[in-house]
Amino acid sequence: MIKFIKQHINSILWALIILILCGAPSSEFPSMSFLHIPHLDKIVHFGLYAVFTVLLISECNIERKSGGITKQSILIGVSVAVLFGLLIEILQMLVFISRSAELYDYLANILGSVTAVFFYRLLNRLSNRII
């Protein structure tokens, strides 16, 4: 168990950040009236899950150091991120006060996750195989 946690510490911490952000009442976030970006919350969902998926793929990818990527790491990364996004939306619907589940949030999560797959090799190369 300790080995698993050490290997996946970054994605576990990122999942906790997502859980906290998506579970906190919306009144806890400061109002940014100067930012009038339409659907900003969808952009945030996209970004959170793109980063989450990159972390998951990186931590599962045994070919990371050589610049490769395994199909298994892609499958695990996308599956975990998509299922976690679904869990968060269900929690927002049933548990979190002042939060509600939104289909478009979940679709933004999925889109961010899938997009991460296409950018993983580039990020791996730019980070000198750290990611």
Describe this structure in words.
This protein is mainly α. The protein is about 70% helix and about 0% strand. It contains five helices and no strands. Helix 2 packs antiparallel against helix 3 (about 40-60), helix 2 runs parallel beside helix 4 (about 70-95) and helix 4 (about 70-95) packs antiparallel against helix 5 (about 105-125). The longest helix has 24 residues, at about 70-95. The protein is globular, with a radius of gyration of 16 Å. The protein starts with a helix and ends in a 5-residue tail after the last helix.
Sum this structure up briefly.
With about 130 residues, the chain is mainly α. The protein contains 5 helices and no strands. The longest helix has 24 residues, at about 70-95.
Q: Treating each run of at least 4 consecutive H or I residues as one helix, how many helices?
A: 5
The biggest sheet amounts to: none
Structural class: mainly alpha
Averaged pLDDT: 91
* Gross morphology: globular
Helical percentage: 55-70%
Regions with little confidence, pLDDT below 50 for 5+ residues: none
